[in-house]
Specification:
Layout lengths: L2 H12 L4 E2 L15 H6 L16 H11 L5 E2 L9 H7 L5 E3 L4 H13 L4 E11 L3 E12 L14 H7 L3 H9 L15 H19 L9 E5 L4 E4 L10 H4 L15
The structure holds zinc ion (ZN).
Length: about 260
């Protein structure tokens, strides 16, 4: 569960989807809701949650908030990391998956759903852009609708095998390699974000879901960027999947070619 997912959960639930499955990411623990900053960004979180004897996890806070709306939509809570097979298996019960995780390794696993299991994935990410180190010049939300017919995250160069290897290193080893210059800075480190940007990203992810379900969904762009700072948007490529990409080789293979799980 990440800030963006907590923001996306509210419009999803208000659209009355029959069931929504929140996943708790391995990078967030029971004590993750430990700063004023987190309270500002996690939907449903309150300052008093920081002082309870047994801190709630973010996924519990979001689910409690959704339940409190009383809309009668069943929410299934799953404790687990999507990079582990037990948690991944829960996704196979869904009709569409919204991916808002912030690591390449978790997105690589979710990416496999579209080609291997023919399950549509809406991937969304947000980014604060700066110039001259500290001057804000962009609040960007990026959307990618990954289906068996559209480019996957590998086709789009959205995820990197080098970054995945670095993310999967033990923290001490990653820190050492970073100091030695073998790993670029930023991997495994928190990135800046603001609530307004997560709302922008989550809103567009939810509208992408409505577009995907519409009669014209098959002709709509599968990738685009919206900049809430500059007030503009643009399509992103490629338009078609790369012929040699793994997503073309494993179409519909399902468990005959499952993802590489790192946490068993
Ligand atoms: Zn691909």
């Amino acid at each position: 569960m990440e800030w963006l997912e907590s923001a996306a959960s509210v419009p999803l639930l208000r659209n009355s989807w029959s069931e929504w499955v929140p996943l708790k990411s391995s990078c967030l623990t029971m004590t993750d809701l430990d700063t004023n900053s987190n309270v500002r960004r996690v939907f449903g979180a309150r300052m008093k949650d920081l002082t309870t004897a047994k801190p709630k996890s973010k996924v519990d806070i979001v689910e409690d908030h959704l339940d409190s709306l009383g809309l009668g939509v069943r929410v299934r809570r799953v404790e687990g990391d999507v990079r582990s097979e037990p948690a991944f298996r829960h996704l196979l019960d869904a009709d569409v998956v919204l991916c808002a995780t912030d690591t390449h390794s978790s997105r690589a696993v979710v990416n496999e759903l579209a080609s291997g299991y023919l399950l549509p994935v809406i991937d969304v990410g947000v980014r604060v852009r700066t110039r001259k180190r500290d001057r804000l010049n962009g609040l960007v939300a990026e959307l990618r609708v990954v289906t068996p017919e559209t480019p996957c995250l590998w086709c789009r160069d959205t995820i990197s095998s080098d970054v995945i290897r670095a993310e999967n290193l033990p923290p001490d080893e990653r820190h050492q390699l970073k100091n030695e210059g073998y790993i670029v800075h930023g991997i495994g480190e928190p990135v800046p974000s603001v609530a307004a940007l997560t709302v922008l990203g989550s809103g567009h992810a939810t509208t992408a879901l409505l577009a995907l379900l519409s009669e014209d969904g098959h002709v709509l762009p599968s990738g685009y960027v919206v900049d809430g700072f500059m007030g503009d948007s643009m399509f992103t490529g490629p338009k078609d999947p790369a012929a040699g990409c793994r997503c073309r080789q494993q179409l519909g293979l399902g468990d005959s070619s499952p993802p590489s799980f790192i946490l068993m």
